Amino acid sequence: MVQENDFENGLRDDLKPTYRAVSIGLEELLHKTIPVLDHGFIRVVDYMGDDAAVVQAARVSYGRGTKKVSEDRGLIRYLMRHSHTTPFEMAEIKIHVKLPIFVARQWIRHRTASVNEYSARYSILDKEFYVPDAANLAAQSANNKQGREDAPLADNGWVLNLLREEAERSYAGYNALLNVSEEGMVIDNGRVGIARELARMNLSLNFYTQWYWKTNLHNLLNFLRLRADPHAQYEIRAYAERLLEITEKWVPLTYDAFKEYKLGAVTLSASAWKVVKSQLVGKSISFDESGLSQREWTELMSALKDE
Amino acid sequence: MVQENDFENGLRDDLKPTYRAVSIGLEELLHKTIPVLDHGFIRVVDYMGDDAAVVQAARVSYGRGTKKVSEDRGLIRYLMRHSHTTPFEMAEIKIHVKLPIFVARQWIRHRTASVNEYSARYSILDKEFYVPDAANLAAQSANNKQGREDAPLADNGWVLNLLREEAERSYAGYNALLNVSEEGMVIDNGRVGIARELARMNLSLNFYTQWYWKTNLHNLLNFLRLRADPHAQYEIRAYAERLLEITEKWVPLTYDAFKEYKLGAVTLSASAWKVVKSQLVGKSISFDESGLSQREWTELMSALKDE
Amino acid sequence: MVQENDFENGLRDDLKPTYRAVSIGLEELLHKTIPVLDHGFIRVVDYMGDDAAVVQAARVSYGRGTKKVSEDRGLIRYLMRHSHTTPFEMAEIKIHVKLPIFVARQWIRHRTASVNEYSARYSILDKEFYVPDAANLAAQSANNKQGREDAPLADNGWVLNLLREEAERSYAGYNALLNVSEEGMVIDNGRVGIARELARMNLSLNFYTQWYWKTNLHNLLNFLRLRADPHAQYEIRAYAERLLEITEKWVPLTYDAFKEYKLGAVTLSASAWKVVKSQLVGKSISFDESGLSQREWTELMSALKDE
Amino acid sequence: MVQENDFENGLRDDLKPTYRAVSIGLEELLHKTIPVLDHGFIRVVDYMGDDAAVVQAARVSYGRGTKKVSEDRGLIRYLMRHSHTTPFEMAEIKIHVKLPIFVARQWIRHRTASVNEYSARYSILDKEFYVPDAANLAAQSANNKQGREDAPLADNGWVLNLLREEAERSYAGYNALLNVSEEGMVIDNGRVGIARELARMNLSLNFYTQWYWKTNLHNLLNFLRLRADPHAQYEIRAYAERLLEITEKWVPLTYDAFKEYKLGAVTLSASAWKVVKSQLVGKSISFDESGLSQREWTELMSALKDE
């Protein structure tokens, strides 16, 4: 899953001593590029704190070493269960991400983060664009207005060809507008190209951009809850799933509590909770009495049967 | 500058009574679409507060009518001058904006705002794309790595043609991927199109999107300071300039103070201020003694000569 | 519940016409002071938007009048149920609050709000301090380390006397440090008092302060979920309960959805959900098999029995 | 300036290896308590990044080692000068602070930070309160409505006595309400004390609290610009000044740029800048022609004379 590459730039050549908290799990991954989609990646650039940082903030005046790990685990589960979120803000992570622009447009909606993005006003974007695997090409979902079907398209050759050709053409137009060759060399044809900030408008949304993204653990978990969800678009979910693995390496106790109390938890509305409780004592509430909408009823009945 | 259109939808047909503060200047503009660029617009959808709301918050326990307008003006100038920014957070505005995607990507970097954007996962985007006026087509700036020259391109016909043809083609590819006609009708050709969330990746960055954007007056002024600046890209500046006019109608006292103490103000570094003061008493500090970089020195000397 | 008072200052004397959305329910309350605790209050100063503003943002390009109220209700419930929170950011409220300093210290932890507080550096604080009703004086809770018992103290006279005497004394010390009489007049005794910013440190945390507080509907609901909760300290809950009533008047559809999907909802951890589902099919998971802590198990069993 | 104490708890006993950026200057200070006021302190608990982190984010795709330090310095000064603030968000610091409650109330107004405070609902506060040095006791300022005179009070004995006696009494009342001895032992007198969350309301605002506070470098500099300013109340300025020293150790290049372009910089309004430029060419604008208020004119003339 992890590959070495240029971005490491010797960053893993020497270890430096520090008095700070160290996450041994995350140190293993630090600076390594983790591939996502066809040309994207995630690379952890820096971090601050670990599970103990969460515990330490919750205890405030307690020193790090004064409690056993078993108690740390219990405290973290308590905090997660009761949505005491502020201690989870006390750990921080910074990643370098390469991602298609249409994914970046979803990602940036998470506002409580710091971002520095590659500037296409300042530099020329590389010729790298996203084309889905055939397995991820699917028709519009019949019952989800903002998603795709699970089963891939039977006939996908024409789609893949079209996406590739159009992206090639889009980049060729970009070069023509800049009046440069694909290698970025100015073409001597008597023409003057337009500014980079203008030419970029010709690129399509599947071209890759990259950025540094920094957020705290609490906001990272919010991101993961929304973006590792099956309703999230596959392309951003691919990043969220790698980030889940990174989170597990970084803060294993927090990750376990997150799975138990957030990712795997079920929230029942006031009316749905009444239906469940009545079933348990054998006097079932009917759909008509329930106050649930048809869709809520169907989803609840299906969830109750789910293994 | 203002045109009626569909979005008004009868919203200006009836006036309702309210006990709230009312900005007469902004009521005139409410719901009207103000054109920007070739297909974009700004439309004020709602607002809360006026100049008096700023004053009221600054005085906290003072009622609205207890002071004269002349004192309100002085207080607003005092607050702006000393960067006492919290009272300016007490007024709020909500606008509906139609804008090219590459402009939306710059705009969204202002994080302290609320946004609801048209979803291309849920609906098909219209065939509307931005092509600059010939007057705004320019070469890469020679001395600003992230801008364009002031003078427009002499030879621009090929650029305009290329941008139009490529956008047409980009939209045709989008339709083909969805397997729909330009009117959005499914084409009966035996093919199954891909989901909207996938097809959109073929669109270029000059296609228009739209959103509701809501922010407070303090953050609006920050936006304007950065985006109405000559260094901002022309296309977002076009929106910022309309917003400046809207701000003037809404909160005229705040607008005047903003021009005097922010937009038109000059900040001198510690070293530059020493140079200016020494010149005033006739014993000039030389470039070598100044501690300024070459660029800072040139800019200071030019600013001092500027009429 | 509502009383007229000085702060209204004629603000309800005249109605002005507006093209904006108007909440008839909230207009009735606007500017009126709603008493809380012994000397506190909440007063709605301004607002922006209503239930329709939430719907409008969710639909973005749809006009206000195009859908029926029944569909608005369904959409708002859908948004609330699925935690699509951004449309709820599109409505805004501003309130004037008078509250004890120790309550203000809890309240201010909600960061996504705008605040202008009465400045005790600038002005002298009034002699107003909070003393609980006898009904709200209780011993430290035996099973909640950060709460009090439900039953009030049997013997409370000494407590009430102590609190009153100490607050009187605290204010007398404040006056002495300022070298002013209780009416704020300088005392001619040859002494020079200390600055207001210093003297205030002698006041106790039950003295009242006041502020303007402005937030959007989404963040207001977050505030209410935490502060109208039975685990919140009674004194801040008293404010949250008034705010719940205000919210119901302002955005009745959102309020109903909030009760159904947030306030009255139940969240079960992954393990607890397994226990419930196994009970429904008659093959109960025991405590030992459940993976729940003793406390979680007890709470779940008690919740299932709860009528 | 630095003293060892209990909070270190062996945290400086062993160095661990890391692949992260390390600030040698800040490692020296890590975990050590730096005294502030009579009983307060600042203790750096953790940090992320250094000057190079700022540079790295600005360059995005450039690796750490590729540029010389001289170029880093130039880039940081460029970013600071032009208020390109996002790269400064890429470094983070976490401190443990002990501070009087009235200082905490000012500090918390900086919203873009994470905070975990000692809970007086959960635990009993120690008997530690702030009493100013005689040198910092001063009368209300004659020309600054929210400050104190520079010269200390001649007659201060009665003030110091009053503050001490009142704080002692305040804490005795707190103990009485809890029905505990000064050592926190329950007193066997037949009385039942009230809950901690209630008893705390009797404490005065000069009692010490403590918290973990975490923020990024950009927001730290904003805090310092406001709170290290001569107009800030002395008691919070005392903390800001220690934080300035910490910042210099942590990110020396950023610190220097901050002094040059922010702390030591001068901002002139549009009108004031015209006055200065006209003086430089020998044709002075008079006060009447200037558009400045009397106070602005006086301050400008005095600034120009200032050595």
| Biggest beta-sheet profile of chain A | 5 strands, antiparallel
Helix count, DSSP H or I runs of 4 or more residues of chain A: 12
Sequence of secondary-structure elements of chain A: EHEEHHEHEHHEHHHEHHH
Structural class of chain A: alpha+beta
Q: Name the poorly predicted regions of chain A.
A: 61-66
CATH architecture of the largest domain in chain A: 2-Layer Sandwich
List the chains of the largest interface with their residue counts. Answer: C-D, 54 and 55 residues
Strand order of the largest sheet of chain A: 2-3-4-6-5
Specify Rg of chain A, calculated over alpha carbons. Answer: 24 Å
Predict the CATH topology of the largest domain in chain A.
Gyrase A, domain 2
Give the strand tally of chain A. 7
Please report the distance between the alpha carbons of the first and last residues of chain A: 31 Å
Mean pLDDT, all residues of chain A: 92
CATH C-level label of the largest domain in chain A:
Alpha Beta
Domain module tally of chain A: 3
Shape of chain A: flat
DSSP strand (E) fraction of chain A? Answer: 5-15%
Quaternary status of these chains?
homotetramer
Instruction: Give the proportion of residues in helices of chain A.
Output: 40-55%
